[in-house]
Amino acid sequence: MGKIAAGIVIALLVGASALLGQPPGQKGPPQSETVRQGQQLVRQGKVEEGLALFRQELEKTPDSVGANNAAGTALDLLGRGAEARRYFVKAIDAAPNPIARIQAQRAMAMSYAFEGDCANTVKYEKLAFEYYVSTQEFYQQGETADEAARVCIDSGDLKTAEQWYKIGYEAGLKEVNIAPDRVSLWNFRFENAQARLAARRGNKAEAQRHIAAAKAALDKDPKMAEAQSVFFPYLTGYVAFYSGDYKTALEDLLKANQNDPFIQCLLGQTYEKLGEKDKAMECYRKAAATTNHNPPAAFARPFATKKLRG
After folding, report:
1. Distance (Å, rounded) from C-alpha 11 to C-alpha 26?
2. Best CA proximity match to 201, nearest among 157, 167, 171, 246
3. How far apart are CA 247 and CA 235, in angstroms?
């Protein structure tokens, strides 16, 4: 998988997850067998059982960064954010190197994201962003900024989301000797974000202009489009939903990634608007079962769980 394909997850919501506090593309300290077994249990939906193994590991090695991150993530999935963040603090403090510290900081950011807390998510994403500024890793600056922006738009803080999408876009384009398809990628991402922001603000015409610009970016760069075209029906479905065109929203969202928990929630809401409650509940059941620890899951698992509880 190339760099572009590997990096698309955070900003545009679909793909490999930052599971158990591990940001995509980053490697932390090696995990113990106990932690690996716990992670497998979490992936199977046995979150409480996984948490028990993480705590078992921490009884032996209380400064284990991996076990602390994993325990915090499991607790977030269980809706116990305040308890989760005590483990992330330990992971940050025990981190043996900057990358491990960034992983723990971004896991902490996601913990706040599970509660829709844009401000504290940005606080911890900014720490990672500033590290990448110090190392002049422009692509990672863009990724981190977009991750913060994504949480904020989902939480309804559109002003902060807009600010961080712009920061991410400008940072990403500063990459030395940037490849043409990487430029196209950042252009597509930015137009995607602007379209969603406009739709959330009720500006249908502006949203459509940005959709057209995003489509033009895809058409102009077939290489970039190979990895990114999958996000286009999500974008058009998202805009249609927030524009009140639920029939179009359904048609487009059904062409998007059906395994993405955020899209499952958006489909659930669309079905509700169309009066199809049973289909909506099925979408929410799928979304509530996600065990990822990334922006889509941070919105979807709490939202869907609340819907299912009525």
Report:
1. 16
2. 157
3. 15
The rounded Cα 82 to chain-centroid distance in angstroms is 20
Half-sphere exposure at residue 116, Cβ-oriented, CA atoms within 13 angstroms: 10
When pLDDT is averaged across residues 7-29 and rounded to a whole number, the result is 40
What is the distance between the alpha carbons of residues 156 and 81, in angstroms, rounded to a whole number? 20
CA distance 50 to 48: 5
Please, which residues have CB within 8 angstroms of residue 23's CB and are 6 or more apart in sequence? 10, 102, 103, 106
**Distance from C-alpha of 83 to C-alpha of 76, rounded to nearest angstrom:** 8
| Cα(245)–Cα(154) distance, integer angstroms | 20
Q: Is the pTM of this model over 0.70?
A: yes
Tokens 């998202």, located at residue? 238
Query: Tens digit of pLDDT for each residue in 259-301?
Result: 999 999 999 999 999 999 999 999 999 999 999 999 999 999 9
SS3 category, 88: helix
